[in-house]
Amino acid sequence: MINMKGTVIMAVIAYGVYHYTHTGNLTLIPPTKSAVVQAFQKAQSSRASQYDVEVTKKCTRVGGGMVKEGVYACELELSSKSGGEQPFIEKILIEKKQGNWVMRNK
Predict the structure, then answer these.
(1) Residue 97 pairs with which residues in a beta bridge?
(2) Is residue 70 part of a domain?
(3) d(Cα 22, Cα 14) in Å, to the nearest integer?
(4) Residue ranges making up the domain that contains 46
(5) Is the Cα dihedral 24, 98, 75, 54 positive or negative?
(6) pLDDT value for 84
(7) Which residues pair with 87 in a beta bridge?
(8) What's the average model confidence in pLDDT over 24-44?
């Protein structure tokens, strides 16, 4: 009986940690490249439809807390889908709000 009780307690703790890390604004690790691209496309939907977007460097922490609410600077390369112009670099700030990575206004 004691072994079962310990297992249930561990399962509850594990679920609590999982839920907190996936729904909170925990930012111990930088956003993935796909999360950065999605945040850019959501914030700049009209521009994003005209360009192919690629993250050129790993995002670096530039502000916010060490564990929660961190702000990261990311560098994107935008290439025109029509091929009419040269690719260019754009720097953006990204942060986690309500469990999702979003682009921050500069």
Answers:
(1) 100
(2) yes
(3) 12
(4) 25-104
(5) positive
(6) 79
(7) none
(8) 90
Q: How many residues appear in the chain?
A: 106
Given a contact cutoff of 8 angstroms between Cβ atoms, the answer to whether 104 and 43 are in contact is no
Residue 44 included in any domain: yes
Distances (CA, A) of 36 to 5, 85, 103: 42, 23, 8
For residue 22, give the nearest of 96, 104, 95 by alpha carbon.
Answer: 96
What's residue 1's pLDDT? 53
Residue 11 belongs to some domain of the structure: no
- Most confidently modeled of 21-25, 51-55, 102-106? 51-55
Residue type, 25: N
The count of structural domains within the chain is 1
pLDDT band at 21 (very low <50, low <70, confident <90, very high): low
Beta bridge partners of 71: 63, 95
